[in-house]
Write a structure and sequence with these properties.
This protein is mainly α and about 350 residues long. It is built from 13 helices and no strands.
């Protein structure tokens, strides 16, 4: 009887509106846009990884060489500013509705590609590891500097991510509200053309640029897509029992270890003569600043800690501590042996 009354009320409401079934159609939730194919995602990641790597190198030059704000032997070390800015941008993008629109591939390129490559875990970890083993001689107590830098860095980066989330909620809500049906097609064509044009241009730059600095930068940008795409592939691996983002942990650990090994090779094996291009140094710089720096990420790391914390605070803190400890211990062993090798 009660069910019949409800049906009569529904019919009477529809008849009063004079629209009948049209009311039902108006309240239906729109179907989510289809997930872009994998090749589109990786194409966007590769292009925006180049952009992120190039912007990070430029940021380091501005705040390091020119403004002298960043220094490997200080709390604000190289890539500190880019890690803050990249974490902020990722927070803003995550809070915006862009990821649920037709521009899903563009969103993946901006988050995983640009933000993930503009920020770097391996370079930050390596500088603090060198300070911890005493190779950084700019201060007398470099070990204290390394420990303090971890606390200040973590607070700065995750704070920037949280501010970015608030910014994205307030301002980013306008992003993606009106996306043309041809938007994904235009995005794919534009990114494909830009990717291949940029790759060709950077290859030419490596060949014809007369300066070692220029060759090194172009080489790093060419290595960037490989690191970012491997990181994106590893991101699908998670340890479900402890909600551990295993992919990001592996990417950050692998990139940190390779960069530490590259440092040893630079110190022990690469010899450069005066007045000539040192190709060994160009390649190691490309692998370290391009591949390793883009394989690792601070922004995604901060995002995962933030997302884990509400439901499982101990897992979030454990994930952060585990990443720091395992990277510092293993890289410290490599850097420590290298630094003290001549005294054995």
């Amino acid at each position: 009887m009660e069910l019949a009354n409800r049906r009569d009320e529904e019919v009477s409401i529809q008849s009063r509106n004079g629209k009948g079934s049209q009311d039902v159609a108006q309240v239906r939730v729109k179907d989510p846009p289809p997930t872009p194919p994998q090749w589109q995602l990786y194409m966007h990641i590769a292009f925006f990884a180049m952009c992120g790597c190039l912007c990070r190198i430029g940021t380091d030059k501005i705040f390091g060489t020119l403004a002298v704000i960043e220094n490997s032997g200080e709390v604000v070390n190289l890539s500190f500013i880019s890690n803050m800015v990249g974490s902020f941008v990722l927070g803003a993008l995550n809070a915006s509705p862009m990821g649920s629109t037709r521009l899903g591939a563009m969103y993946k390129g901006l988050t995983t590609g640009f933000c993930g490559s503009y920020t770097t875990w391996s370079k930050w970890n390596q500088q603090l590891s060198l300070a911890l083993v005493g190779e950084t001689n700019t201060v007398s107590q470099s070990q204290v500097l390394s420990i303090v830098s971890w606390f200040i860095g973590f607070h700065s980066f995750i704070g920037s991510y949280c501010v970015g989330l608030d910014f994205g909620k307030d301002v980013g809500g306008r992003i993606g509200k009106k996306v043309s049906p041809n938007g994904p097609k235009i995005s794919n064509i534009a990114v494909a053309v830009l990717l291949f044009s940029a790759a060709a241009g950077f290859i030419v730059g490596v060949i014809v640029d007369p300066t070692q600095t220029g060759k090194s930068i172009w080489m790093a940008v060419l290595f960037a897509p490989f690191g970012a795409c491997i990181r994106a592939y590893l991101a699908k691996y998670k340890y479900e029992r402890f909600m551990l983002p295993l992919g990001t942990l592996l990417a950050n650990l692998l990139g940190a270890l390779v960069l530490a090994a590259i440092h040893v090779i630079n110190v022990r094996a690469v010899t450069c003569g005066s007045g000539t291009i040192c190709w060994g140094s160009v390649v190691t710089y490309g692998i370290g600043t391009g591949f390793c720096a883009c394989l690792t990420t601070v922004s995604t790391f901060m995002s995962e800690i933030y997302k884990l914390r509400p439901a499982n605070p101990k897992f979030a803190y454990g994930y952060a501590i585990l990443t720091v400890v395992i990277c510092q211990v293993l890289c410290g062993i490599i850097n420590g042996i290298n630094y003290n090798y001549d005294t054995y």
